[in-house]
Amino acid sequence: MTFVVTDNCIKCKYTDCVEVCPVDCFYEGPNFLVIHPDECIDCALCEPECPAVAIFSEDEIPSGMENFIELNAELADIWPNITEKKESLPDAEEWDGQPNKIKHLER
Length: 107
Ligand code: SF4
Ligand code: F3S
Hints:
4Fe4S_Fe-S-bd; binds iron/sulfur cluster; two-stranded antiparallel sheet; Alpha-Beta Plaits; alpha+beta; binds FE3-S4 cluster; single chain
């Protein structure tokens, strides 16, 4: 089991999640974060910390976002580790809640 970062993180990247993860299993791209499924210990600490409500347990992924399970696994192998909170993206509040941000994902 793992937790998964989903669509609403894209173009927001608040990074509050990073601060609470006891095993530092978040990985950072230009405008999205992912969780490494082999490193996540399923502690659930990050889920309530995300202001964008973008983090879900693998077995509670909202309908239509199942593709983010594979996407987290794929990108966590490529992107660098992030262990400290940083400024959110400049237009985070504007983008928070917009649907289908996957088309804006930068790799
Ligand atoms: Fe880290 Fe726990 Fe969130 Fe997994 S569930 S990403 S271990 S804080
Ligand atoms: Fe993204 Fe939420 Fe973390 S917006 S960076 S999953 S706090």
